[in-house]
From TrEMBL:
GO cellular component: plasma membrane
Domain of life: Archaea
CDD domains: ABC_MJ0796_LolCDE_FtsE (cd03255)
Protein name: Putative ABC transport system ATP-binding protein
Segment forming the signal sequence: none
SUPFAM superfamilies in the record: P-loop containing nucleoside triphosphate hydrolases
Region (Disordered): 1-43
One GO MF term: transmembrane transporter activity
Every ABC transporter domain range: 26-252
Keyword list, A-Z: ATP-binding, Nucleotide-binding, Transport
UniProt biased composition (Low complexity): 1-15
PANTHER family in UniProt: ABC TRANSPORTER RELATED, IMPORT ATP-BINDING PROTEIN
């Protein structure tokens, strides 16, 4: 299965980066975020500000898939962006490996994201001029991994997600499901502690989406996975589901 196929390939990333802890979790404590606010704090007089999150606290344990559900505008994507270090919340803490991402500089947060967080976008975000293998290897280029190791790692990951015969194909030569598999392989290239996925089956048909969900379930056996979705089939594979409404945690089941 996926994890067994991937086991040997994980050593190249670990050897290049050094040993890391075997378990990790991401935690949000009292996180609020306001888009368009000034001065980094809430200002009720600022009519342009939009409150996306209100005092959100949740935890994603290692080896666990946590689903985020809620209507559009409920704050799902903002939670993912906060966990991925793509934004600094207006208030609260976002902890990864006991480190508050909000307390880091932009450069430090980027380094943490590149090493410890994998991101799967709904619309794939693959570079059209690069082959599947080159797209998967891109985060390893940024991490300074030697070329031969990058190639070996990317090839092993594509084989693990069932695309061993598509390594040299461009994204335009791949189906939607294949492109999403490339995106998942890319998210795993640095062997991250946490994977965040935003509507990973939103662009896929039912059968292809089911294959991607099986892959994400396998991924969750080795690391923390946080997935935002409107799709019930996607949420069904989660070990825990957090419901958001108007930027607040409404329910956890």
């Amino acid at each position: 299965m996926f994890n067994r196929s991937l086991q040997d390939s994980r050593s190249s990333a670990s050897d290049s980066e050094g040993e890391r802890e075997s378990t990790a979790a991401v935690r949000l404590e009292g996180v609020s975020h306001q888009y368009g606010s000034t001065g980094g704090r809430f200002r009720s007089s600022d009519e342009r500000a939009v409150t996306a999150l209100r005092d959100v606290s949740l935890e994603v344990p290692a080896e666990t898939v946590v689903g985020l559900e809620g209507p559009s505008g409920s704050g799902k994507s903002t939670v993912l962006h906060a966990v991925a270090g793509l934004l600094v919340p207006t208030e609260g803490r976002v902890e990864l490996r006991d480190t508050d991402l909000a307390a880091l500089s932009d450069a430090e947060r980027t380094r943490v994201r590149r090493r410890h967080i994998g991101i799967v976008f709904q619309r794939f975000h693959l570079l059209p001029s690069l082959s599947a293998r080159a797209n998967v290897a891109l985060p390893l280029v940024q991490a300074g991994v030697p070329r031969a190791d990058r190639r070996e790692r990317a090839t092993a990951l594509l084989e693990a997600v069932g695309l061993g015969d598509r390594t040299t194909h461009l994204p335009g030569e791949l189906s939607g499901g294949e492109r999403q598999r490339v995106a998942i392989a890319r998210a795993l290239s640095t062997d991250p502690d946490v994977v965040v996925a935003d509507e990973p089956t939103g662009e896929l048909d039912t059968a292809t989406g089911a294959d991607v969900l099986e892959l994400l379930t396998d991924v969750g056996r080795d690391r923390a996975v946080l997935v935002a979705s409107h799709d019930e089939a996607t949420l069904d594979v989660a070990d825990r589901v957090v419901t958001l409404c108007d930027g607040r945690v409404e329910d956890v089941r």
